[in-house]
Design brief:
With 160 residues, the chain is α/β, with parallel strands linked by helices. The protein has a domain of 109 residues: TolB, N-terminal domain (Rossmann fold, 3-Layer(aba) Sandwich), CATH 3.40.50. The protein is 29% helix and 27% strand. It is built from four helices and seven strands, in the order E-E-H-H-E-H-E-E-E-E-H. Strands 1, 2, 3, 4, 5, 6 and 7 form a seven-stranded mixed beta sheet that branches. A hairpin with a 5-residue loop joins strand 6 and strand 7. Helix 1 crosses helix 4.
């Protein structure tokens, strides 16, 4: 699976190549799981792309069957008020956006992803993850990269 450089639609400056590399490391950790080592689940080999283009020549050169695109949708700093509604099909890790137990000192970040089959224009699978945590932005996004890898692994291993 080729992993494109992340997009950043938030208004926060982040090193998206570093975040992509964190995502790839999360896949490597998944490949060390007991189901993979015992042969019950396939390894998911990743190839970093230097772009987020659908037509990156590295997809063909590396014979990637799937391409993963991820986008940092938003980062909301603690103490700021967000008037937007919760997005459809999102999975919230930690407290939900309207949870009275949510800590006002927590930052919130949302990452969306889509999996494309190489050579096809339709989205094969997609999702969105949100987390709340007092961690700094870069660490918060890294946490979401782990969660994204877990979701993508589940999507790829799920029989279709």
């Amino acid at each position: 699976m080729c992993v494109s450089t992340l997009q950043n639609n938030s208004h926060t400056a982040l090193d998206m190549t570093w975040q992509r590399n964190q995502l790839i490391k999360a896949f490597e950790r998944n490949n060390k799981g007991k189901d993979v080592t015992k042969g019950k689940a396939p390894r998911i080999e990743t190839v970093p792309l230097e772009s987020n283009s659908e037509t990156d020549p590295a997809v063909r050169e590396n014979n990637c069957q799937f391409i993963l695109h991820a986008n940092v949708v938003e980062i909301i700093e603690a103490g700021t008020y967000d008037t937007s509604n919760s997005r459809p099909h999102s999975i919230v890790i930690g407290s939900t956006p309207n949870d009275s137990h949510a800590n006002s000192n927590d930052n919130r970040a949302t990452v969306s992803y889509r999996i494309m089959r190489a050579g096809e224009l339709e989205i094969w699978a997609s999702g969105e993850l949100t987390t709340h945590d007092p961690l700094p932005d870069a660490m918060l996004i890294s946490h979401l990269m782990d969660q994204t890898a877990n979701r993508v692994v589940s999507e790829l291993r799920e029989p279709r």
